Amino acid sequence: MLQKISDLIKEVSAYSVNNGEDLELFRLKYLSKKGIISDLFEDFRNVSVSEKKEVGQNLNQLKQSALEKYNILKSELLDKEDISDIQDLTRPSVSFGSGSRHPISIVRNEIIDIFTRIGFTVSEGPEIEDDDHVFTKLNFAPEHPARDMQDTFYVSRISSEDSSPEDILLRTHTSSVQVRVMQNQKPPIRTISPGRVFRNEAISARAHCIFHQVEGLYIDENVSFADLKQTLLFFAREMFGKETEIRLRPSYFPFTEPSAEVDVSCKICNGKGCNVCKHTGWLEILGCGMVHPNVLDSCNIDSNKYTGFAFGMGIERLTMLKYQVNDLRLYFENDIRFLDQFKTAF
Length: 346
Ligand code: DAH
Hints:
This protein is an alpha+beta fold. It has helices spanning 2-14, 20-31, 36-44, 49-86, 103-117, 131-134, 175-184, 225-240, 293-298, 315-323, 330-333, 336-339, and strands at residues 121-122, 128-130, 154-158, 166-170, 189-198, 210-220, 246-253, 256-265, 282-291, 307-314. It folds into 2 domains: 2-87, no CATH class; 103-342, Bira Bifunctional Protein, Domain 2 (BirA Bifunctional Protein, domain 2), CATH 3.30.930.
């Protein structure tokens, strides 16, 4: 009997199965009530007292081995089935999370989309600029407060032998791209310039040292203030809805004359007055005006022949109005819980 048990232990340990049926056969053969091990326990009753101890130990070992083997074979089979499941090409695919566009990119793309539909091209310029393109050629007086260290991040001051020293700085507005376009292209010019700008501001819910603007420039013969107004009305209605109205308030910028600030009717309260528009019914969205003749001349465009308009808007501000996001810092934190909410936008 001892020999038989030892043969069975070997047999059990060498056993292998290919499928659930084989596994069930194993169970029936060794572990069921009518199986071999059960029979051996029956026979055990007849074993002589002198052999009982040794046979008993071996028999228990056989039973233990068969149970362990059964569990091993079962888990091997489950692993195999997992693999065959993956190979089942008719199964629905596993879905995986997709990202979302940043709200600033969404609104930037929308602005580009609107203006390219009416013939504007997109142009870009460097973020690290010189004083000439950011201020001087845009008709800023030498003592203009915008050049102040408090607003502008200065990088360095370069001097070459044949010119006076010049400041290198982070552009404070995208109007600098206007200058580069006018220097490199001949009218008619119709372009928008989206990009990042930098100002030395303390970071809070309403101000940030990095933000985004879109600059617009249109230069040709006989461009009038009426063209500017119609272009901006078209933009506002595409961006905020067909019923949107705009109003222009006189303002001042060194590079435009006359200049204006543009408000859109508040779409939250339809002009009736609410918290978002501070009960005025209007929301400011951009600055604009007719390009100052000094600016045209400084960029070698004949101001007697050509006129033009320009405008500049903040993308964060437009995004705030569109999605009612009231803290600028959210745009820069990359918090997935914030970004996830823009999944359905394009
Ligand atoms: N550059 C101005 C700013 O950063 C915005 C601006 C106003 C741009 C009027 C223009 C303009 O082109 O005509 O505040």
